[in-house]
Write a structure and sequence with these properties.
The structure holds two protein chains of two kinds. Chain A contains 15 helices and four strands. By secondary structure, chain A is mainly α. A two-stranded antiparallel sheet of chain A has the order 1-2. Chain A has a two-stranded antiparallel ribbon with strand order 3-4. In chain A, strand 3 and strand 4 form a beta hairpin. In chain A, helix 3 crosses helix 10, helix 5 packs antiparallel against helix 6 and helix 5 packs across helix 10. The radius of gyration of chain A is 23 Å and the shape is globular. Chain B is an all-alpha fold. In chain B, helix 21 runs antiparallel to helix 22. The radius of gyration of chain B is 36 Å and the shape is flat. Classes of the chains: A mainly alpha, B mainly alpha. At the A-B interface, helix 4, strand 2 and helix 10 of A face helix 23 of B.
Chain lengths: 359, 411
């Protein structure tokens, strides 16, 4: 038996160079310091993405992307398919936790200035990954074709439609027509299961390769004594796996005690329900648009806010190129303060969405 | 050339246009006080005004003239006396040729109907206290029944009728009760009209008629109720009650449900208990008394089983198990319960037993689903505990390993 196993191992090793890979992993080291905790969120994002892919593929076995069948198929998954409730709940809960982990990963990278030269492209790929995951979340929200998701999509696409110059065309392109319909569901499904995951896959590959080539950054200002190198394997990987297990327990508890709801089937002829809101990760933008005065210096408030978000997003993308002090290894408190204000703004606006009456 | 011509035309037409807009009736009445001022104020909102009619169309005269004496020319009729009001309004409203120019769908039989009403009959006898057109429709601020502020809009009708019929002093002479409005307000009909804002819910006119308003006599009460409740009426006609009621002269529906204070029917109305209406007529031990008890027992049985299964599904749902299908089936059984309640009008115990049996056999399926859902919830929790214990042990092992690695000497 041992001989057979040895033969199989040798066969595989000769072809896949497993020992060489293991040797490389054993040699590879990563920095460990007092901020190392935040570095595990990258791995958590990767783990949750893998969960998304596995559960998403399983959901595809029963999901029907049609106006007449989508809601019914989700109901079938939740009530009739063995462990269907678990697969769908894991998919929905882990998607939301993933977005949360992406926010944490992005802001921790920002505050630790890990984007500084030569890791600008790691930040840029990460930024686009964040945008893609938001788009995956937005497109996936509509797929169960329930009342909340239907009207939230309408609200979301109306916002896109109010963009100056390109708004109307963009809205028509997203919806596949003038309103949320079968065409919208088809293209959201197409985006959610094919185009966006493909784009995310390519970018994740690039992001991980860049991390491998450039290594993990050590935060500025840490003295030699405060940082040390630990082997990537097994030390760092073990810690990563520990984090994944904790996340898995959290997802399991949420799925059993709070299975993801199906909601009422969408009725395009019904009046928009009161207090309709998008998914939580869009609410800071949604609430800004709700609270902004209708006119600011004779300009339309809503359009101004959208342009503000576009400009803010562009600046956020260009942060590694704008913060030259960090690249030179010098402190850059202005960026830290700006990041703290943005973070506080997002948190406050999100809380206001769920606490302010009449929103 | 074109501009001087247009100017000439404007100057030429201006006095005529101003004259056409002039209304000396309104001008004078606006300067008066109280009830003489009221027409000038309230006519602005009157439906007749919206159709282009003016004071002269009802009262005659020439409002284009400033001089009061000249304005009140030989066509002037002034205000009609109360007894003349129905005929006064009917000059137009009974004239189909005239009315169709404004609203071809408007009926022209109001006066004929009014004459058949109790109000019309008494007016003919010289009683001028009875309601005439203006009492229900207003005088100069008349609105169509579709206008929410109209006295004849469904929500307002009970109050409009109640202005006279709830007035004890006014009704004293007619020796009729004045509690109809108060009773109606407690009824299931009023609940639908005022709380649910259901415009099709019956108000006074739905049962008593509009212009031909009269108290329905014993025989016609059943027909009045059947307008909205045909199924209950049909079942009642097949029941042994029909013959008995006809022979004794009892009015059908209101014997059990009442007249104006028609409450939401409950299962307690049936059977031999304290609130049961059956015991009003049937002696204990009699065959109908026993049948009433049996019908109540059957209804209570099905109803309590539905409630139990509702609670079962509720528990499963709260535990996160998807139970839309059995909930939908339970809803269908609830509809069956409603039809069984209706069947009690036919007093056919065998038929009720059959239907209740059908419902109970359907409930077995729902209960099975509910119990399976609860088992599923239990299984999920057990699975979670097992998986979590396994994962915690796994995590703990990793933690120990990581600690062990931390104590390793630095490379």
């Amino acid at each position: 038996m041992n001989r057979t196993l040895q033969a199989v191992w040798t066969f595989l090793d000769e072809r896949f160079k497993i020992q060489a890979l293991a040797k490389f992993a054993g040699k590879k080291s990563v920095p460990e310091h007092k901020h190392s905790f935040w570095y595990f969120f990258g791995g958590i994002c990767l783990f949750l993405t893998a969960l998304q892919v596995v559960t998403g593929i399983l959901l595809l076995l029963y999901y029907t992307p049609s106006v007449d069948g989508a809601h019914e198929s989700v109901q079938f998954i939740m009530s009739q398919v063995k462990f269907g409730w678990l697969i769908r709940s894991v998919h929905s809960w882990s998607a939301n936790i993933l977005i949360g982990a992406l926010f944490i990963h992005m802001f921790s990278t920002f505050f630790l200035k890990a984007y500084r030269s030569p890791r600008e492209l790691t930040w840029v790929t990460g930024f686009f990954l964040f945008v893609i995951f938001l788009a995956i979340g937005f497109s996936g929200y509509l797929l169960p074709w329930n009342e909340l998701s239907y009207f939230a999509t309408r609200v979301g696409t109306d916002i896109a439609g109010s963009l100056p110059l390109v708004g109307k065309a963009l809205k028509t392109f997203i919806l596949g027509g003038s309103s949320v319909s079968q065409a919208t569901l088809t293209r959201f499904f197409w985006l959610h299961v094919a185009i966006l995951p493909l784009a995310a896959g390519v970018l994740i590959g690039l992001h991980v390769v860049l991390v491998q080539i450039l290594g993990m950054s050590t935060p500025l200002g840490l003295k030699d004594k405060q940082a040390r190198e630990i082997p990537f394997f097994p030390d760092f990987v073990y810690k990563d796996v520990l984090g994944w297990v904790m996340i898995l327990i959290l997802v399991g508890v949420l799925c059993v005690f709070l299975p993801w709801e199906i909601g009422k089937k969408a009725d395009p002829f019904a009046a928009t329900p009161l207090g309709i809101k998008p998914e939580w990760y869009f609410t800071f933008m949604f609430t800004t648009l709700k609270l902004i005065p209708s006119h600011i210096f004779s300009l339309e408030g809503e359009k101004l806010a959208i342009l503000g978000f576009l400009l803010g997003g562009t600046l956020w993308l260009l942060v590694p190129f704008l913060n030259r002090r960090a690249s030179r290894g010098e402190p850059s408190p202005a960026f830290t303060v700006a990041g703290a204000i943005i973070f506080a703004y997002i948190v406050v606006m999100t809380i206001l969405t769920y606490t302010l009456r009449g929103l | 050339m074109k501009i001087p011509a247009a100017l000439t035309l404007f100057v030429f037409l201006l006095p005529g246009a101003l004259l056409a807009q002039k209304n000396s009736c309104v001008d004078c009445h606006a300067k008066l006080e109280d009830e003489l001022k009221a027409p000038a104020e309230s006519f602005k909102l009157d439906v007749h005004q919206q159709f282009g009619l003016g004071c002269q169309d009802c009262h005659g005269g020439n409002p284009a003239l400033d001089d009061q004496d000249k304005a009140k020319d030989k066509t002037f009729k002034g205000a009609p006396k109360r007894a003349q009001v129905p005929e006064f309004c009917a000059r137009c409203h009974s004239d189909s040729a005239y009315i169709k120019a404004f609203n071809p769908r408007l009926r022209v039989d109001q006066l004929d109907l009014y004459k058949t009403s109790r109000h019309g009959e008494l007016l003919k006898k010289g009683d001028t206290k009875v309601a005439v057109c203006t009492d229900c429709h207003g005088v100069h601020g008349i609105q169509t029944a579709k206008h929410p502020k109209s006295l004849t809009f469904p929500w307002n009708i009970p109050q409009t009728c109640g202005r006279c019929h709830a007035d004890a002093n006014l009704m004293k002479a007619y020796k009729i009760p004045t509690d109809q409005l108060a009773e109606y307000k407690q009824s299931v009909h009023a609940q639908a009209l005022f709380e649910k804002k259901d415009m099709s819910a019956p108000a006074c006119n739905s049962c008593h008629g509009n212009h031909g308003a009269a108290p329905p006599d014993v025989k016609s009460i059943a027909f009045v109720c059947r307008q909205c409740h045909p199924s209950a009426g049909e079942l009642f006609s097949k029941s042994p009650h029909k013959k008995a009621f006809d022979e004794t002269g009892f009015s059908e529906c209101d014997a059990c449900h009442g007249k104006h204070k028609i409450l939401r029917p409950t299962d307690e109305m049936l059977g031999t208990g304290e609130g049961a209406v059956c015991i009003q007529c049937h002696e204990p031990g009699s065959k109908p008394f026993v049948a009433a008890g049996r019908m109540k027992e059957l209804l209570a049985d099905l109803s309590s089983e539905i409630e139990a299964d509702q609670s079962l599904l509720g528990r499963a749902e709260r535990k996160g198990v998807e139970v839309s299908d059995p909930k939908y089936r339970l809803q269908e059984i609830h509809t069956l319960l409603v039809s069984v309640r209706n069947l009690t009008h036919a007093l056919d115990v065998v038929d009720i037993e059959k239907k209740v049996g059908e419902g109970k056999s359907l409930l077995v399926e729902v209960r099975t689903s509910g119990e399976a859902a609860l088992r599923e919830a239990k299984l999920r929790r057990t699975g979670l505990v097992v998986a979590t214990v396994f994962l915690i042990l796994f995590a703990f092992a990793f933690y120990l390993k990581i600690r062990q690695m931390r104590t390793r000497p630095r490379a």
